[in-house]
Amino acid sequence: MRRRTFIKAAGASGVSALLAGCTGSGTDSTTTEQSGGSTNTTTQGTTTGGNKPTLTVGTYGSFVDAPSTSPGPWLKEEFEAEFDATLEWQTPDSGVNHYIERSLRNVESGADLYVGLDSQMLVRIDTKLDSELFTSTSDLSRRDDVNEELEFDPKERAIPYDTGYISLVYNESYGDGGFTAPETFDGLLDSEYSGALLAQNPTSSATGQAFLLHTIDAKGEDGYLDYWAELKENDVRVLGNWEDSYTAYSNEEAPIVVSYSTDQVYAAESGEDMAKHQIRFLNDQGYANPEGMAAFADAANPELASEFMDFMLRPEVQAEIATRNVAFPATTTAELPDDFAKYAHEPPEAVTFSYDRLKDNLSDWTDAWAQEFASK
Amino acid sequence: MSGIPVRRVARFFEQRLLSFVAGLTAVILLVLFYYPVATVFADAVLEDGGLTIEPLVAILTSEFYLVDIIWFTTKQAFYSTLASLALGLPAAWLFSRFEFPGRETLRSLTILPFVMPSIMVAIGFVATFGRNGTLNRVLSVVGLPPVELLFTLEAIIVAHAFYNAPLVARIVTAAWESVDARTVETARSLGATPRRAFRDVVLPQLLPSIGIGATLTFIFTFASFPIVLALGGFQLATIEVFVYSKVRDLAYAEAASLAVIETVISIALTAVYLRYEANQRAAGGTANPLPRQSVLPSDVTPKSTLRTAGIAGYTAIVGLVFIVPIASMILASVTGGDGGLTLSHYAFLVERQATGASFQVKPLPAIVNSLVFAGGTLLVAVPMGVTMAILTTRTYRGRGLIDVLSMAPFAVSGIVVGLGLLRGLVFGVDVFGTRISVTGALAIVAAHSVGAYPFVTRNVAPLFSRLDGRLVESARSLGATRTRALLDIELPLVWTGVVAGAAFAVAISIGEFDSTIILAEGSGSYTMPVAVERFLGRRLGPATAMGCVLLAVTSLSFFVVDRFGGRWGEL
């Protein structure tokens, strides 16, 4: 039995309490929960009482806590009902960076698996860490159900569970109406689209990064910087994040925004005018950004983590994830509701960079872009 | 029970209270600021355990970083400071010299921009200054051509003024109200014109407060980041944008080097200001503030007409820069996807509160936590700030250094502090084989206090330096302890500054995001700004509703702080 000591949030005072903080050893991590004035203490880690094991899953905030829908609560309920285990979500603000940072500082990961990896993150992990943060999982019964085209980890640590496509969303009723987005990357350079496009900072936003990578794929390593110089000349706006650009788009600051090809799902939900949510796949392509899950190398419950991953790939669970995360399933066996395809659009052709290409180039490509675009 | 031992014990603590608080301040700063920040800054000069200057040199020899980033950041901060002064000083004049209905309420509300999450400001600004915004609609009604303000340097500067002009106004108003009317009357009786009396008597007493307002504005806008990208765009990227990008890419050597350079510039500016402030010996007290006059003149003269027109024009600008964006935020929180009015975003908050899972962020705990932390910050930051103010107004060797070090929390990038807290506190430190980590409510209060106490110090220190030292000496020679003299003599005399600082402390605590989100992770200690961020999704409504809750709660708490704080001081 591991030793645990807790800080008491209420009643503790002065410097001794502050410094005492919480002490623990080994893989323990301790948190103090305070809500509504009452204080209670929760633990996360391996076991909580009796023999019921706890599976700790790291993920990004909106996977469990989005204002519209998110798969987290449903997954927890279903998994716990079936496996007689407790599922605990961890949602550090910096996402997977939090765990990389822990590893860099020689602190145990404190979780069993992470949900929400993409190839860019894997590149970051493999460039910055000498040790293995994640381990490969091979013994899943549904591993072969995963659509091969979505596989993005050559080391087979990350198993795809859904995918999104980054595309343009445009407003048909912009200006005097009858607006339509260009069909090609070159079309975006036309003077009629001056100031028409809102994109996002590729150094901090997933959609912004995908759009930059798509331009590199379309224009080539040697051509994308020139292309962006021309986009800049044509008054493209690269804002901080998706929220910034979507706020501006919703206020009709500009008629085109870089977003997800599932944009209409949300629009339909809140009864918006579909003319303002038209999807355009430039060059008939969408940039695929599959999301994957992987078990931590130091997971306390690796078997349970495997069971969870198998659970995630079940046909009915895949359908729920797709609907609730508003993305496309990763398996070929998912049982989607009939009206799913009505608002969620798939591109005629999906493009994406392989892990190996990204590993050698991602930082350089992004840095070069940032220096080009931020030069005054 | 005998009274003597109790009095002795009380006296024992009284005698040592100042040293105790000073010691506590040092410990808090070390644990929650200097050590965490050092873990990050070390990356700028350490490589594989050895010292290196390469990352710093790489940046200082890069034309891109020097000209396009650092120089540009300096330039925009300078313009932003000018704009904040231009917008803030007239407000200080109005608040301190005029009487008008709702003056005190309005003055309390000037704190609101401080606590506003940047996404809220972005929403308000796009709705106000955008192509289809309020400004352009008004312009088209009166037949003027539209202005393209968004995604320009000008938009960033106006947004920075939105955040910082209220800061300037609050600080200068406090100083203006403590100008002794008798000094002006003396000048006038000696034949000085009103203009001359203002220039020679009033202005010198205001300059230190204008100086600190300008210095703080420069430092804050120098490290600005989300608002730059939301209203300007990446082509107008500042140093902090690159610090964030590099941290996210885990390129720590570059991130730390940029942050070190940023901090050095801010600290240098702070040192220049503090040197100036130390040389000012403003005279006077607060016994006889200048009388207020009505905004509506009693008789019509060319001069009074001009002044009324000026005040009206200024009010229109304030309406455009402050009132319209805030009204737009409130409007956005009740606008549905179809453009019609709806309460569905607020219904979401109620529903989340009622049915949210334990691991989800709920509105009520966020409100309660914010208020508890703000209260805690008040209790910790005010003693810290007052004690530092006493230390910095004494004369001793190394005082300048203490002065600057105590202001450092303002000068270090929030991103760096956040990363440092993660490394230093959340992950913990190995002490004799035991890992000690500090998170949750206490750590959050302490972190907020670190960010808040310099406001208290800067509001109080100038007043302390004005006090007649003989007052304390007399009290002590009559047998009062140092603490007793402070509580009974000095504090009542500097109370306006304490209240002003306390208001900032509460605002800093309510608005703080970077440290809170890191220390609150997994503990349920999240606050209102964290909830706003969490409720951002593919629909913006729920976040704006939470943002309006934040505005409402903050406004209410400020009535309490300003009103009761002021009364308490009058007792």
What portion of the residues of chain A fall into strands of 2 or more residues?
15-25%
The level-1 CATH class of chain B: Mainly Alpha
Give a quick account of the main beta sheet of chain B: strands, pairing sense, barrel closure: 2 strands, antiparallel
Low-pLDDT parts of chain A are 1-48
| Major beta sheet, strand line-up of chain B | 1-2
Protein name (chain A): ABC transporter substrate-binding protein
InterPro entries (chain A): SBP, ThiB-like
Region (Disordered) (chain A): 25-53
Keywords (chain A): Signal
How would you briefly describe this protein structure?
Chain A: It holds the Pfam family SBP_bac_8. The complex is a heterodimer of chains A (376) and B (571). Chain A is of the alpha/beta class and 376 residues long.
Description of the molecule:
The complex is a heterodimer of chains A (376) and B (571). With 376 residues, chain A is α/β, with parallel strands linked by helices. Chain A has three domains: 1-44, no CATH class; 51-163 and 289-340, Periplasmic binding protein-like II (D-Maltodextrin-Binding Protein, domain 2), CATH 3.40.190; 164-288 and 347-374, Periplasmic binding protein-like II (D-Maltodextrin-Binding Protein, domain 2), CATH 3.40.190. Chain A is built from 13 helices and 15 strands. Chain A has helices at 14-20, 61-65, 71-83, 96-104, 119-128, 206-219, 224-233, 242-250, 263-269, 302-312, 315-325, 340-343, 355-374; strands at 22-24, 29-35, 38-44, 54-59, 86-90, 113-117, 134-135, 159-170, 197-200, 237-239, 256-260, 278-280, 285-296, 328-329, 349-351. In chain A, the strands form two sheets. In chain A, strands 4, 5, 6, 7, 8, 9, 10, 11, 12, 13, 14 and 15 form a twelve-stranded mixed beta sheet that branches. Chain A has a two-stranded antiparallel ribbon with strand order 2-3. In chain A, a hairpin with a 2-residue loop joins strand 2 and strand 3. The radius of gyration of chain A is 23 Å and the shape is globular. The relative contact order of chain A is 0.16. By secondary structure, chain B is mainly α. Chain B has a single domain, classed as MetI-like fold. Helices cover 76% and strands 3% of the residues of chain B. In chain B, the strands form three sheets. Chain B has a two-stranded antiparallel sheet. A two-stranded parallel sheet of chain B has the order 3-4. Chain B has a two-stranded antiparallel ribbon with strand order 5-6. In chain B, strand 5 and strand 6 (434-437) form a beta hairpin. In chain B, helix 1 (3-45) packs across helix 13, helix 3 packs across helix 8 (153-177) and helix 19 packs antiparallel against helix 23 (514-520). The longest helix of chain B is centred in the N-terminal third of the chain and has 43 residues, at 3-45. Chain B is globular. Chains A and B meet through helix 1, strand 1, strand 2, helix 2 and helix 3 of A and helix 1, helix 3, helix 6, helix 11 and helix 12 of B.
